[in-house]
Recover the amino acids of this structure.
């Protein structure tokens, strides 16, 4: 096959992928999957997990349980204790989840990007001018969870959660194909803006972004499930201290977490676009001067 033919074939595959995952009734399908995944029938459970294994790299060897009551139970599985220890170095901010590293870098005033050449603004993402000002010219990193990954996310550092804002929206797929084609995608999807502050006073914000087939975002510290039935923006004031590695919640499928940090934070050497990272592994370093 010629190079031109290969490019044409790949383009056609992208077109088909985009058509199948985005040119469908996304909200209705997401609600259906949310309902279907909770059916506790052995045959439905077994067939669903078998199909999931067939079309993904699902690996349940790390799961705490060896059997599941439903597809949802498998989606939101816990891991065996001790498998995601957070880096103990107090200067290190760790990854909140297992993920594939996407776009990252410096925020240009208030502009960041979902992929190269596809910018969006902090205000469109966060909806809060005060929080935008706190992260102006800061650092950002995009962490994409695939459907087969461990779906729980954790505190990236010792911090105090000050506020959660749920912003309702669409459920576009967040894979690279959609990111190339849908302008400001993260700003259109359902998302939770988790505003935290480190012990030294630095702002650290997590933005879990929901996607197609993600029926909800569960936040343990609020004892609440945020989903299409929630209407936003809705603000939940908090005053909750968490330690690095504490479980914060889960996605019910796969999605994205955007991490926003101050400008003096530095990315760790293992942060490379398209590389895989595990919850608890180094993400950013807080320079000693920041203390």
């Amino acid at each position: 096959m010629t190079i031109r033919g290969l490019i044409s074939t790949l383009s056609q595959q992208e077109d088909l992928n985009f058509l199948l995952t985005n040119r469908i009734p996304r909200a209705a399908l997401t609600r259906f999957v949310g309902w279907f995944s909770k059916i506790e029938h052995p045959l439905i459970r077994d067939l669903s997990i078998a199909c999931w294994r067939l079309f993904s790299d699902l690996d349940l060897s790390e799961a705490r349980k060896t059997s599941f009551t439903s597809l949802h139970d498998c989606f939101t599985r816990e891991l065996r204790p001790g498998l995601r220890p957070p880096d103990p170095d107090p200067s290190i901010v760790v990854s909140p989840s297992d993920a594939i590293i996407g776009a990252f870098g410096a925020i240009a005033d208030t502009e960041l990007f979902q992929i190269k050449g596809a910018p969006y603004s902090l205000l469109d993402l966060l909806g809060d001018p005060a929080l935008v000002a706190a992260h102006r010219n800061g650092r950002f990193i995009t962490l994409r969870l695939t459907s087969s990954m461990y779906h729980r996310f954790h505190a990236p550092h010792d911090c105090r959660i000050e506020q959660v804002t749920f912003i309702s929206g669409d459920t576009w797929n967040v894979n690279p194909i959609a990111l190339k084609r849908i302008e400001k995608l993260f700003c259109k999807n359902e998302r939770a803006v988790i505003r935290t502050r480190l012990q030294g006073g630095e702002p650290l914000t997590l933005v879990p972004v929901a996607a197609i087939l993600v029926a909800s975002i569960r936040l343990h510290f609020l004892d609440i499930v945020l989903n299409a039935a929630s209407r936003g923006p809705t603000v939940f004031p908090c005053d909750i201290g968490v330690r690095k590695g504490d479980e914060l919640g889960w996605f019910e499928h796969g999605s994205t977490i955007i991490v926003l940090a101050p400008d003096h934070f530095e990315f760790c050497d293992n942060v490379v676009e398209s590389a895989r990272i595990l919850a608890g592994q180094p993400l950013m370093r807080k320079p000693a001067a920041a203390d």
About this structure: Helices lie at 3-22, 26-36, 42-54, 71-75, 122-126, 129-134, 176-181. Confidence is low (pLDDT under 50) at residues 1-20.
